[in-house]
Prior knowledge:
single chain; Adenosine kinase, small domain; 2 domains; ten-stranded mixed beta sheet; globular
Amino acid sequence: MNILCGYNVNIDSVYRISGAEVSELLKIFESTxxxxxxxxxxxxxxxxxxxxxxxxxxxxxxxxxxxxxxxxAVFKFLRDRYFEKSLVRMGGNAxxxxxxxxxxxxxxxxxxxxxxxxxxxxxxSKKAIYFPAALLQTELKTGYNPESKSENNAFASFSSxxxxxxxxxxxxxxxxxxxxxxxxxxxxxxxxxxxDHLNFRLFTSYAFNNYALNRAGxxxxxxxxxxxxxxxxxxxxxxxxxxxxxxxxxLKAWKAENDKLRIHVEFGHFASRxxxxxxxxxxxxxxxxxxxxxxxxxMFNKLHGIPAEGLLRMEAESxxxxxxxxxxxxxxxxxxxxTREFVLVAFKPDLGISHRSxxxxxxxxxxxxxxxxxxxxxxxxxxxxxxxxxxxxxxAYASSGRLEGRExxxxxxxxxxxSRFGREQLQSFLKAFDGAACGRGAFALMGGxxxxxxPTLLCKSPITTVGLGDTxxxxxxxxxxxxxxxx
Length: 487
């Protein structure tokens, strides 16, 4: 399988922070400032106290989030305090997915690389990653030189350096003192402080643009991500709307060259509900599928009408209803929700002409029990098989911090345990939607969509929690393409 990966590729500086360190860090700052920002999270980082408040807010609630850094002083603070003690590795949804695809069996993976420095390129997998010749011969040789003359100096200073995302992993059970109040972290997660101004604009290199357009006919799929980094307004006065139009035009050009190209758009933690809504509405038409987690799904509660509380508690009934409603509002072919405890997908099954009338009869209640329909069962089995492979990839990556081929994945997956909470939610799903069990998962029919759910695979002491959603998505996407070819 040949797959394009855009847009965001960067360097991750990963640091596992303890409760004791947070307690000491808080002593540096005024309590009133930090407590106010925890109560009303700024969502962006303009100062060191913004960073600390964001970190504590996530640890206190067990949330995951990504906030953008806008000041060089904060970048220097983070680099000087944590970079040398961190694990430096590939970052960015597109970069992580590209590496995962390369390691688990894709034939050719072509990533967009905004800053092709030696450090950045060295972090890519050596198996199936392909860099277009123009990237190596021109951009790497000369070094990156920002072409945008309209940016202000602060913006340009970020653009001229390696994009670094400072990732702070924290563990369940860590304890810290929030100015006299003992806080126990309810679940493991991560807080990311992002210094990456090129990806703010979904910058694509000439080499990637040229290759993708000229070779679109040779590609089987495209994994697209990074929209959560968009800003409402940029220093030159432009807005995210222009960036979205450029991206949409690009994807339309690829589809014009290859109408069979399978496009998946992966979401992230959006700082703006307005941007999230715009991305969903614009790209639900051209993308075959969209992926997100429960936090991101809750941002759309005004559209799907399901209270955010149930979604954030990872209740299968709430997530199933919200997923189905959100997908149906836009006519999206597939909406993929990955949580820590289970994965749930709503999709319109491609049953072929011979089985389409049977499916419609099921929807209209003319067939007594859809759960006994062979075509629907086959569609559910295919979906669950793809997700199950993605879960094994994510679990292997969580437990080992690496992927080394499918044999490695299957071996590591044997050491993992099925989420107990995920299994409980599967039972709730069966009752709520009158569903049917199918292997480790289950399926149900609702509003023209087939819902499938399966518990995740967990390890007691994960090496990392960053990139698990991307690894899951990459594995599921690749296996789905393979199953389509086999069919």
